Amino acid sequence: MTRSEIDTLIEMMAKLPGLGPRSARRAVLHLIRKRALLLTPLADAMQQVAVTARECLNCGNVGTSDICDICASEKRATGEICVVEDVSDLWAMERAGVFRGRYHVLGGTLSALEGVGPEDLSIPRLIDRVASESITEVILALNATVDGQTTAHYIADQLEGRVRLTSLAQGVPVGGELDYLDEGTITAALNARKQL
Amino acid sequence: MTRSEIDTLIEMMAKLPGLGPRSARRAVLHLIRKRALLLTPLADAMQQVAVTARECLNCGNVGTSDICDICASEKRATGEICVVEDVSDLWAMERAGVFRGRYHVLGGTLSALEGVGPEDLSIPRLIDRVASESITEVILALNATVDGQTTAHYIADQLEGRVRLTSLAQGVPVGGELDYLDEGTITAALNARKQL
């Protein structure tokens, strides 16, 4: 068999996170079967996104305008900034629908091992924003990993005294069972126990 | 947030087999980050495939011409037809690289429950081919499921006496451990044991 456009497509699909060669083959066969319903519209949608997608110049969110809807909305000028590692974390926060302020996407975490310093992330820009947007609270919603916490500490050091600094609470996940939780989480939940 | 092209793309990606909403989001963010390297080429490749992909009129394989490379190749006119349920099975056989004949893709299995009869599959076309292509052997490479085996029996009934009928051997998978095999496989492997 000669290498066809189909093989090329399978190879490209296999590079997506969460897909391997086998699932890429399945997806491509599915797409070919639903050509009019799925393949052509999907190709069009990708072309559209390739043209319109851009990073918000203010917070780093991914959207279709230079300033994202959240940064553009006056309703969200609450004086609170929620700092997240990645756009996917921002989207996760938005799905919860509980935070009414604005965001700041770092684009990763500090990592001595991988040579990621503060300038490689958008930390200087965060410090500018705190000054220029009359921010009163910075919520550090970084992942509870070593790199995430190191980065949180660094940012807290930089902003110390200028603004109220908070981080997400640690504890038992809603619907979680103690038996399945690690010791660290149980320790954190016990230490932060609440009066009933 | 207003519904943007990005949300549309995520929704479409989530419909692919093997992807759900979360992995679709991850994939789309990955694509946006690698716009020039991945998103635009992928959109182009999909557009290409949407235009060029077609089913082989002879065997049902998916390719880019009306008669697929396998059916077109004189080298593969060995008088053997390997009957498979689906194009993905054909591709799996081709990856093994051991079968030198041609294929016939049924497009599914007979199923009384779902109302799939012989005319819904390409069984009549298979019977035609056996007559017209001077076929000497039909290898039934259907899945070892109830529906697959029912379909194999039906085809065997139809072709009885006209051609040599075979099916894939059942037994221990290469690299397989007995402890992890079901009783049916062990029984089949024992019954088909070979003299050393």
Q: Could you tell me the strand content of chain A as a percent range?
A: 5-15%
So what's the CATH class of the largest domain in chain A? Alpha Beta
CATH architecture of the largest domain in chain A: 3-Layer(aba) Sandwich
Radius of gyration based on Cα positions of chain A: 21 Å
Number of strands of chain A: 6
pLDDT averaged over residues of chain A: 91
Q: Total number of helical segments of chain A?
A: 8
**Element order, helices and strands of chain A?**
HHHEEHEHEHEHEH
The strand order across the widest sheet of chain A is 4-3-5-6
Largest interface: A-B, 49 and 49 residues
Amino-to-carboxy terminus distance of chain A = 70 Å
Tell me the structural class of chain A: alpha/beta
Largest sheet of chain A: 4 strands, parallel
Q: Tell me, briefly, the overall form of chain A.
A: globular
GO molecular function (chains A, B): DNA binding; zinc ion binding
Zinc finger (C4-type) (chains A, B): 56-71
Domain Toprim (chains A, B): 79-173
Family (chains A, B): Belongs to the RecR family.
Describe this structure in words.
The structure is a homodimer of 196-residue chains. The first copy, chain A, has a 4-stranded parallel sheet with strand order 4-3-5-6. Chain A has 8 helices and 6 strands. Chain A is 44% helix and 11% strand. The first copy, chain A, is globular. In chain A, helix 1 crosses helix 2. Chain A folds into 2 domains: 48 residues, Helicase, Ruva Protein, domain 3, CATH 1.10.8; 91 residues, Dna Topoisomerase Vi A Subunit, Chain: A, domain 2. The interface between A and B is large, with 49 and 49 residues.
